[in-house]
């Protein structure tokens, strides 16, 4: 499990760097350096492509950004031509970075972004729309915010229907527990759509397993170190009553497993979500029971492509059907029975995607609870 310790150490280093950059007013320097004067990219209207996200040391977000870089390389650019806005999980910084980007490039901006939490999506979209730029979002927005209410400027929103896959992983976990015993859940940021849906999936599965008891639910904010601390607290409080762990992300599962091993409880089964390379490898080894792959490489590339092509006028978002403006991304549950084949196809090498085929892997329009 040395990679888990290395992952925790890298998160600590990254956090320190973010604090130093913030203190000296240098956050966002990554995007300033990537578009130095004199670097003319062969793009119509001199459009600047940017990705705003939490943290590249997180394997999931690294997959997202790698997809964005693959897209800009398909334009004949270098991957360094993509502007990186790294918010470190701060919605305030996310919005501030976007506004700085817009003040510099105005309507020549094509932005791909996870707004970090649901409430932050509206001010981001409004700032982009008022500037005449273009934005495509993923994961987090409120149900009353829709791309078609902003003409062409709010290009699209992609999320994932996490309830059913999360329920599937919970069932895998409960079966491994013999259908009885206590389970704990470590969730993401409470206001995040995926955190809400993944907990709902767990609770749906519980209805079919009357002898499984949900001992505790606690947010660990998608963070490996915090998950390690939360799991240590659960072990202190519940001890041997814990027979299984349901995690809302792979990165939190790494911290959980480290805590379990430290207490000599490495035999407790764990399931997670995101399908990161390390997690899929752990599933092949039986160290995780299951994870859920959401194809971040494709999502990162397509989200950037949609914003860019809207910006250069390749298509008019307002003329597209609504299922092309709000749609679900793909999700695949990976278990020990199929992890090796899955790893060979999707992890060991990224499939080649046509970045102009925007909705090839989309799984239908987003549905809202009425």
Q: Which terms summarize this structure?
A:
370 residues, alpha/beta, Rossmann fold, 2 domains, 6-stranded parallel β-sheet, 4-stranded parallel β-sheet, 12 helices, 44% helix, Peripla_BP_I, carbohydrate binding, SBP_2_dom
Overview of this protein structure:
This protein is of the alpha/beta class and 370 residues long. It folds into 2 domains: 187 residues, Rossmann fold, CATH 3.40.50.2300; 131 residues, Rossmann fold, CATH 3.40.50.2300. It is built from 12 helices and 12 strands. The strands form 3 sheets. It has a 6-stranded parallel sheet, sandwiched between helices. A 4-stranded parallel sheet has the order 7-6-8-9, with helices on both faces. Helix 3 crosses helix 11, helix 6 packs across helix 7 and helix 8 crosses helix 9. The chain is elongated, with a radius of gyration of 21 Å.
DSSP helical segment count: 12
Query: What's the gyration radius in Å?
Result: 21 Å
| CATH architecture annotation name of the largest domain | 3-Layer(aba) Sandwich
Domain module tally: 2
Helix content: 40-55%
CATH classification, class level of the largest domain = Alpha Beta
The chain-level structural class is: alpha/beta
Mean pLDDT: 90
Q: How widely separated are the two ends?
A: 45 Å
Could you name the CATH homologous superfamily of the largest domain? Response regulator
Given the C-alpha coordinates, what overall shape results?
elongated
CATH topology of the largest domain, what is it called? Rossmann fold
